[in-house]
Amino acid sequence: MELSRVPECHDEADVFVRLGATPQTLRESADRGVWYEGSTHEFLLEVPPVARFWIRAGNEITVTPAAASRPDEIEAFLLGSAFAHLLHQRGAWTAHAAAIERDGSAILFAGQSGAGKSTLVAALGRRNHTVRSDDLTPVVVREAQPFALPGLPFVRLQGDSVERLAAGDDVEDEYRRGLDKYELRVTSQTEALPVSRIYLLHGPHDGGFSLDRLEGQAKFRRLLQCTYKGGIFERIGGRSLHFRAVAAVANSVSVTSVRRPRGVFDIAGLADRIEADFAK
Amino acid sequence: MSRIVWLASYPKSGNTWLRVFISNLLRGTDVPVDINELRETPLAAARDLIDDTVGPELSELTPDEIIQARSATYDVLAARADRTLYFKTHDAWTRASSGLPLFPKSATRCVLYLVRNPLDVAVSFAHHLAAPIGKALRVMRDPEHDLVMQGRDGVAVIPQRVGTWSSHVESWLDSGLPVHVMRYEDMLERPFDQFSAAAAFAGLPTDEDRVRQALAFSAFDKLQAQEKERGFGEKSRRTESFFRAGTAGSWRERLDDEQVRHLIADHGPTMRRVGYLDEAPVE
Lengths: 280, 283
Description:
The complex is a heterodimer.
Chain A: E1 16-19, E2 31-32, E3 36-38, E4 42-47, E5 51-56, E6 60-65, H1 71-89, E7 93-95, E8 97-102, E9 105-110, H2 117-126, E10 130-133, E11 137-142, E12 145-148, E13 154-158, H3 159-164, E14 171-174, E15 181-185, E16 193-201, E17 210-214, H4 216-224, H5 230-252, E18 254-259, H6 267-278
Parallel strand pairs in A: 1-6, 9-16, 16-18
Antiparallel strand pairs in A: 2-3, 3-4, 4-5, 5-6, 7-11, 8-9, 8-10, 11-12, 12-16, 13-15, 14-15, 17-18
Helix pairs in contact in A: 2-6, 4-5
Chain B: E1 4-9, H1 15-27, H2 47-54, H3 63-80, E2 85-89, E3 108-115, H4 118-129, H5 133-140, E4 146-147, E5 160-161, H6 165-173, E6 179-183, H7 184-189, H8 191-201, H9 208-217, H10 220-230, H11 251-254, H12 257-273
Parallel strand pairs in B: 1-2, 1-3, 3-6
Antiparallel strand pairs in B: 4-5
Helix pairs in contact in B: 1-9, 4-5, 6-12, 8-9
């Protein structure tokens, strides 16, 4: 199976992705949801019209495509949800965050789906910041310093954001039929960079723009909520691993909570304020 | 294994009132429940509730797959729960293309379905949308109307397929689920009887003191006071307040004859079915 979104790399492989048979169910599961079951070392993920993914030992994913599935759809779930569980197995913190590079370090923008992560980094990309990842940023801790691994070389935008950013010329076709979402290609990155800051993006509220630095318990608690598939990871037995990974990040990174006004998403206004905050 | 009670209604039909009442009834404390912390009665379409149960990322699923995923989610949540669950929804009772119902019988204990005279719904909806009455009439007859709401603090809510006022009512009444219908007008006129009957139907506490206290804590002026003091996360950004009048019959002052005729032309059969065409429609 050809993976069209993954940049070529000539180092020794440390994750193997294979097409092949996957079990209908696992022998041992700590938890079972609608389309998943698993434990901290083994996870079975099903996307019924697309494929079943069997993720093991942090280094192996076996994929069984569904009958009428398309390779690009399989790839979208492989590189999103399936890889997130592989990264959990490897002990990484999977930040539900987009990231850019600034002065040799990584700046993360975390938040729920719909908070505006992708739109913001796409806008910052247009202001000459290097975009490193979109929805999922893996963070590993080395000698008490968190490093952000590069993500995938595209940003996924809703149709209205494509219009707002006037990015129409740079985007590919709808990547899943029936979803009004498009991929904006960016230059692929290969280096791990130290994480210097994390901005937590919230949905719109009644007030104006605000940026507030978080400290102590509040910082730790809010970061815990920014883990991609964190709820599932905790239920399959990963709670202490999750806490440890997030605590290491909370201890060494500055975290800022960002709010924006209701109404039309003033993306330029938000990008201005974020850029002004970088300088502080 | 437990089951779910659905608090279902078309928007602007008293659902939040019922939700606050049930939250107070279940908590049973001496302090009114904060209207922004209705943990006992979450939104069935809250994204985190579903996202953490499904597996694949919801934002990558198509609308039809989301219906299937939600349906199965409710089965899983019911199976995991050790007590009855109460979920609020504005979705119509619909099915995925495979035929799978969004609100499956297997997960359902019963439905408390709230209905309100569509002539008053139109007035309240226009206020909610901060738009002329005509806009509300168009929304109420749009079979593809999706309700997009933003929960408190950016809590994401999946779009709810509401459809027309008539199809919403008919879908739940014909769902084949055990449905207890509550008319907003009756709730205003005889609150104790109406809320007690609903509590009994849904297996909630029914002792008189507790019901009366929960009713007192969810009285309209109390909800207005809470909103004034702390705001309400589900208020539309276009309006001053969510809890506006809480009365019946304001259509008589606010709608003109033609608007009344339009509403009856659009919704007459369903209005008759739920008892809103017994009265003389216009002076």
